[in-house]
Amino acid sequence: MTKKTPLRERMIQDMELAGLTPRTQQTYIYAVRKLAAHYRRAFESGGPS
Prior knowledge:
Number of strands: 0
Largest sheet: none
Helix content: 55-70%
Radius of gyration: 11 Å
Distance between the termini: 26 Å
Structural class: mainly alpha
Shape: globular
């Protein structure tokens, strides 16, 4: 299982509040993980929020 960072938790909460389905949430999380892997760093250690 993937560690749930505070940033990931916030993203999940925001998606739930937006009314996104669980499958859409999974797809978005997958896309963010792939993007982070592409840049070989966690988003929490980069740029402005």
